[in-house]
Amino acid sequence: MEKELTTQAYWEDYYNHDHSTKKHIETVCSRYDSFWDTLITPNPGNQSIIEIGGYPGRYLAYLAAKYDLEPTCLDFNSDATQLQKTFASMGVSHYHLLEVDFNKHLPEKQYDYVFSLGFIEHFENYDAVLDKHLHYLKPGGRLLVMVPNKRYVRRLYGYLVDYKNLKAHNLKCMNFKTFKAFAARNNLKIARLEYRGGFPFGVHQKLNVFQKLIFKPTRIFCKYVLNPYLEKHPNKYLSAGLVAVYEKPLTDDGIEY
């Protein structure tokens, strides 16, 4: 059993605000259009996509609308209201919701595309969680995995002003080695593997006076000086996240999956 660093209650509280307006969804999700274009290969006919840990559904709804995909959201969050609002905002009327525990669920079908954003780093045994993603992926399909980058400078910053959130993440998976090893043991083609984004200065807690003295100048410096540079020149020491895109082979040594 994979030990989780967060609980269902943690996530239901984390996403208790409304994320379902179309403007908000498009603003947030379009930042990653370059990666979505690597993941999705438009094809005539119905193509399916599933997001692992998909609540509140904004990325999934965005991709379903943008690429005309049939979406499935897998998450153990018990409130489907926001998911329904999200799909409605993006004009997606046909979708599937799987309210299940990923670690216990056995997939009944496979999908053309699978993705998870900020998911595997909440487990101790992240390698096993990564491998389980492939149970949902069709041969020849593509997988995208994105994790935050809380190592190096962000780790120190987290200790100072965002400690609780820092401890909810397993930093051991946040490196190229993890994602290259995943590809190697599963015979996957790496379509893309890189760091992305500016320095993530946002925090998830109330700050005391001392912490505000750190946060406020950091926010100003990052917003107006550092992050415009990092958006064009990301690196492992400062950038917000790490993204990997894979292609699953049609066969392995002549034997179909």
TrEMBL record:
Pfam families noted in UniProt: Methyltransf_23 (PF13489)
SUPFAM superfamilies per record: S-adenosyl-L-methionine-dependent methyltransferases (SSF53335)
InterPro entries assigned: CFA/CMAS (IPR050723), SAM-dependent_MTases_sf (IPR029063)
The name this protein goes by in its record: Class I SAM-dependent methyltransferase
Species of the source: Hanstruepera neustonica
